[in-house]
Amino acid sequence: MIIENISLRSYRNYESLDLAFSPRLNVFLGENAQGKTNLLESIYVLSFARSHRSNNEKEMIQWEQEFARLEGKIQKMNGSLDLTMIISNKGKKTKVNGLEQTKLSHYIGHLNVILFAPEDLLLVKGAPQNRRRFLDMEIGQINANYLFNLSKYQTVLKQRNQYLKKIAFSDKKDLVYLEVLSEQLAEAGSSVLFHRLQFIQKLEEWANTIHQKITHGKEVLKIRYKCQLDVTSDMSEKELFDILLEELKNSTNKDLKLLTTSVGPHRDDLLFFVNDKNVQNFGSQGQQRTTALSLKLAEIELINDEIGEYPILLLDDVLSELDDDRQVHLMEYIETKLQTFLTTTSLTHLENKLSITPEIFYIFQGVVERNRD
């Protein structure tokens, strides 16, 4: 899978930009605050219909403009397709081959992207919501059903929490409607749980293989799903539904006191163990970074395993955060497997480490020049 070209109109600091890319390594080179990450972000937005940097979509629209437009031509094994994303003050529209998509779950998944940025090195020791977001973004782009049920779960969860607040201090508590919401939540939540557990099982296989290669066989990586429920990856969705619904019922009084839903996928987390030691709490910074790198490279292999072709890799100024040994392992993927886009302020990290010649885009104040002397 590659993105052949991209067209931006009124997007961030790009008034009008049309670029064609190399199918191998593309380097966005320039000082900070010139537009490198904006350009990288545009590819991410075409994939996920959202930014990885901000939840405020209006920030992506150029100052005093009514809308931003992004277009990209994607080449896949089974042919090419055109993706369009229009962002305005009224919301966003997505199109595939000119046809507007009524649901995001119908759009996401056409362009598969893996982003690796400095903040991803905090994936291991950061907050649990970072790891839940990691799961949701990666599973969502290869499984439309997961994305649908996750959206449904979040909607019902909000309704249930609002209703808990409404009836908590009421003399007459209508628990029948709460039971209806709990059943709806368990239905969507059991699907989310099922796909998370299946994904983690596959992710661990790839991540451990890569982790052992990086550490020259000295470390074994294990990934565990931290859940308040007693669940395993061999359970069916029906079994998970029964367990989650029962726990929601048992937590009713607790939830009424807390005014929020205390159990479910929105509370879950990931745990990482290196040689059976919890790397989040007791691992060195080097072990934590190696684990994060192993996870990112495992995503690449897992997506290829699931859809039959490699995703596009986006590296946002991450090389400067890795030592030489980890850079070498990352470079192996850049050179041999997939189309890559890399932002950097210097070419130092690439010198004498690549056997291929990168396509270099020099960026200064939103102006892009290609392979200048």
TrEMBL record:
It holds the Pfam family SMC_N. It is found in: Cytoplasm. It comes from the Bacteria. Residues 3-351 form the RecF/RecN/SMC N-terminal domain. CDD domains: ABC_RecF. Gene3D superfamilies: P-loop containing nucleotide triphosphate hydrolases (3.40.50.300), RecF/RecN/SMC, N-terminal domain (1.20.1050.90). Residues 53-80 form a coiled coil. InterPro entries: DNA-binding_RecF, DNA-binding_RecF_CS, P-loop_NTPase, RecF/RecN/SMC_N, RecF_2. SUPFAM superfamilies: P-loop containing nucleoside triphosphate hydrolases. ATP binds at G30, E31, N32, A33, Q34, G35, K36, T37. The keyword Nucleotide-binding applies. Keywords: ATP-binding, Coiled coil, Cytoplasm, DNA damage, DNA repair, DNA replication, DNA-binding, Nucleotide-binding, SOS response. The RecF protein is involved in DNA metabolism; it is required for DNA replication and normal SOS inducibility. RecF binds preferentially to single-stranded, linear DNA. It also seems to bind ATP. NCBIfam families: recf. Belongs to the RecF family. This is DNA replication and repair protein RecF. The lineage of its organism: Bacteria, Bacillati, Bacillota, Bacilli, Lactobacillales.
